[in-house]
């Protein structure tokens, strides 16, 4: 997980640096952004210099967005550092961890990157979901992510959020939940009766190495926790259809950027390729960024992959957010 985050930091740095150079005449904050990026890069001499302790830089910590199934679920809000828009666009982060591990904490190493987005008027929200224990519970986790989006709609006035400008970024299992949340309709996967009154629609979704067809996963060499999860799923015939994002592709899905490595041995590249082909067939719109050498945690990524990925992420952000 640390390797994945480290690679993400470097990739985002390249993206933001390019954006600052290309659009400096259009964005008044580009000079500040460039200084932040250069300062951060100059102070990082190796991956070991990065601090992955949880950051406490959020403005609102552990806001409970619902309490169902006897479990309180919360989110953290990182508000804009500068007011650029009347209401702030939102970037919702959904963590990975094989549906069993992880939490919404954001490492201190990512704080400078978050500040770059926040300097441009974005609100960053990192959400939690109920982790699986003993058996699969995809239903609840998808409901949790969708309810996070519904909570944003419910509380948009209080926190000055623009509910029409919500993007979701998920990594690995978090990408699977993000896709399911983005592709399904508002009346699907409801959990909290009060939040069910609000929209779960998002404008775009960024999928980093997310499973799109669970049947393609290699479950032959899992640890004990995951073995129990997938063993329980084998007895549910609905799993193979109900919780596969690819089965929900329709003409109304949000814009999708898919990022996957051809050498990923955890989630097969074919998973993303099938999703991309389905999106093109049904909607005519999607983007697949194929990496050549990176493994699932983005380690051993080549310079060519870094450049390709950075350019595509940049174009996607330009097209689908109000930043530019």
UniProtKB/TrEMBL annotation:
The record's annotation in Pfam families points to: BD-FAE
**Keywords linked to the UniProt accession:** Hydrolase
| Positions of the BD-FAE-like domain | 75-278
Keyword Translocase belongs to the record: no
Q: Which residues form a coiled coil?
A: none
Keyword flag Transcription regulation: no
GO molecular function terms noted in the UniProt entry: hydrolase activity
Protein name per its UniProtKB record: Acetyl esterase/lipase
Protein source organism: Clostridium uliginosum
């Amino acid at each position: 997980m640390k390797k994945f985050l480290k690679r993400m930091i470097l990739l985002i740095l390249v993206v933001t640096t390019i954006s600052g150079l290309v659009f400096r005449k259009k964005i008044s904050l580009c000079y500040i952004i460039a200084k932040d990026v250069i300062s951060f890069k100059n102070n990082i001499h190796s991956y070991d210099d990065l601090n992955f302790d949880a950051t406490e830089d959020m403005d609102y910590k552990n806001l409970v967005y619902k309490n169902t199934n006897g479990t309180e679920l919360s989110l953290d809000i990182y508000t804009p550092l500068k007011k650029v828009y009347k209401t702030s666009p939102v970037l919702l982060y959904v963590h990975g961890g094989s549906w069993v591990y992880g939490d919404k904490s954001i490492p201190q190493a990512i704080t400078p990157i978050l500040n770059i987005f926040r300097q441009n008027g974005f609100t960053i929200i990192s959400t939690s979901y109920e982790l699986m224990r003993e058996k699969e519970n995809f239903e609840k986790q998808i409901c949790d992510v969708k309810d996070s989006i519904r909570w944003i709609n419910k509380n948009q006035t209080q926190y000055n959020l623009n509910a029409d400008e919500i993007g979701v970024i998920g990594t690995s299992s978090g990408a699977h939940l993000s896709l399911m949340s983005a592709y399904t309709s508002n009346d699907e996967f409801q959990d909290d009766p009060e939040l069910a009154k609000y929209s779960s629609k998002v404008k775009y979704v960024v999928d980093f190495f997310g499973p799109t067809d669970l049947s393609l996963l290699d479950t032959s060499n899992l640890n004990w926790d995951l073995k129990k999860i997938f063993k329980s799923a084998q007895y549910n015939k609905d799993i193979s259809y109900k919780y596969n994002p690819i089965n929900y592709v329709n003409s109304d899905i949000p814009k999708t950027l898919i990022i996957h490595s051809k050498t990923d041995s955890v989630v097969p590249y074919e998973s993303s390729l099938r999703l991309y082909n389905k999106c093109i067939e049904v909607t005519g719109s999607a983007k697949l960024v194929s990496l050549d050498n990176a493994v699932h945690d983005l380690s051993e990524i080549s310079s060519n992959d870094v450049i390709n990925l950075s350019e595509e992420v940049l174009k996607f952000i330009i097209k689908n957010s109000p930043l530019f």
